[in-house]
Every structure is written in C-alpha cells, then in structure tokens.
C-alpha cells in the first residue's frame, strides 16, 4: 500500500484536505492490520508542515474499502465539527459513478428501500417494504451512457447507509461490476469494485464559499475508458 503524496491531494486549505482514494485502501484501521488512510494522511500532513508531534486529522465520512474516489478529512477540530453538522443536516451533495453490466429498468429514477445489516455476513440486505430494525434508504440514479456492454450510472445517495449504493443497485438487478458480495458473478483480482466517489458539493462552513471537489477516474485499464462519457456536469 503506497503512502499519500501531493499527487493524491484534490483540495487543501487550513481546515480540510481532500484525497483521491485508491480502491483497496481502508479509511480507518480494521482487523486486517493494513495501514489506513487516516494514518497515511495524518503522516502526510505532519511531514508537509513539519509537525514533529504529529498533526490533527478528523475522519468526516467513509468509503468502503473497494471503492475509489474523493474523500474529505478535517485538519482542525473546528473544521471537523462544522462539516459533521453539514453531513448530519444533509447539506452535502454526494455524487458517485458506478459501472454495471445489466441495463437499468429506466434511464433515471429514485430507489427507496429499507436496509437491514447482516453483521455475520457483513452485507446489507435491501427490501421494498419496511422491516423491523431496518433503515430507510433513498438514492437517485441516472444512466450517463453505454460503452462496450457496460452502463455508467451517476448516483446521488440522499441518505448515508452502510453499503447503500451497492445493495440498492443490486436489488434493482444491477450489481456493480466486480462486486461479487452483492451478486456480480466475478470479483476483481485487485479487490476493488467499479464504484467511484466522484464529487462532494457543499458550502464551505468556515469560508462560506460554494465548493465542488471532484476526483478523476482511476487509471487501471478499465475505468479510464469511461472518461468519454463524462461531461463537466458530472
């Protein structure tokens, strides 16, 4: 697992740093023993600004390990508190890109499900009705284009549930490419899936400026061919 370098940084100011996460990296320490992004970014900031006693770093949100793309960290406790409030109040627009093999039933739509976490199998099950101990989940999706037998979707989750996009798209009949945990027939040898955190849009809670931070697609021999389907709006 490579360390964070300046080329991974998408945006940085006194309060925040946005990183283009590689698929396969973990955001926080787990039982794998692998170095986490939290540790790597903290080391990067401490070295960059010559902080021998270490740097403050706050985890604002998370991405699943096999997911790539834009992730935002806080460099100050004030920044962390303010962004946590924005996420809690749903004032952050999250846009993801997903590649699926099956054609969605509509060119665009809204998925509403109840999700139930199976902690033994570490998966989230989606239902079309309310279930006991379930959490309501909602997302918008749109088909951006079709290429070489694959469909590129833009996804905007309106709620923030564990594995929400993965389970809801699978329930629709469109498991994400590489996501054999949710029904795609083959997993990736790189242990990644074709789900990419494309951007975050929000009002900077300290500068009070409109922010849109984007992450370019991974360069892995597959993802980058979908650049031809993207426009400045995605």
From TrEMBL:
Coiled coil: none annotated. Keywords: Isomerase. InterPro entries: PsdUridine_synth_cat_dom_sf, PsdUridine_synth_RsuA/RluA, RluA_PseudoU_synthase. It comes from the Bacteria. Pfam families: PseudoU_synth_2. Residues 15-170 form the Pseudouridine synthase RsuA/RluA-like domain. The keyword Signal does not apply. Gene3D superfamilies: Pseudouridine synthase. Belongs to the pseudouridine synthase RluA family. PANTHER family: MITOCHONDRIAL RNA PSEUDOURIDINE SYNTHASE, PSEUDOURIDYLATE SYNTHASE RPUSD4, MITOCHONDRIAL. This is RluA family pseudouridine synthase. It comes from Sphingobacterium hotanense. The lineage of its organism: Bacteria, Pseudomonadati, Bacteroidota, Sphingobacteriia, Sphingobacteriales.
């Amino acid at each position: 697992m490579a360390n964070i370098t300046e080329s991974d940084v998408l945006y940085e100011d006194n309060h925040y740093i946005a990183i283009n996460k590689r698929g396969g990296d973990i955001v926080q320490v787990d039982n794998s023993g692998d170095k986490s992004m939290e540790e790597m970014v903290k080391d990067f900031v401490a070295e960059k600004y010559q902080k021998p006693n270490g740097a403050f770093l706050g985890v604002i949100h998370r991405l699943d390990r096999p997911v790539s793309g834009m992730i935002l960290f806080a460099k100050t406790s004030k920044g962390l508190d303010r962004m946590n409030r924005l996420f809690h109040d749903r004032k952050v627009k999250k846009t993801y890109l997903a590649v699926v093999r099956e054609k969605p039933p509509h060119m665009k739509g809204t998925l509403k499900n109840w999700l139930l976490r199976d902690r033994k199998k570490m998966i989230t099950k989606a239902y079309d009705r309310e279930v006991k101990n379930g959490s309501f989940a909602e997302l918008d999706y749109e088909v951006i284009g079709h290429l070489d037998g694959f469909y590129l979707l833009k996804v905007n989750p309106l709620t923030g549930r564990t594995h929400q996009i993965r389970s809801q798209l699978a329930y629709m009949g469109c498991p994400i490419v590489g996501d054999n945990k949710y029904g795609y027939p083959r997993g990736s040898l790189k242990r990644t899936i074709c789900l990419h955190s494309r951007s975050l849009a929000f009002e900077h809670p300290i500068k009070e400026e409109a922010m849109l931070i984007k992450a370019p697609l991974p360069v892995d021999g597959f993802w980058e061919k979908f650049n031809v389907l993207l426009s400045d709006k995605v």
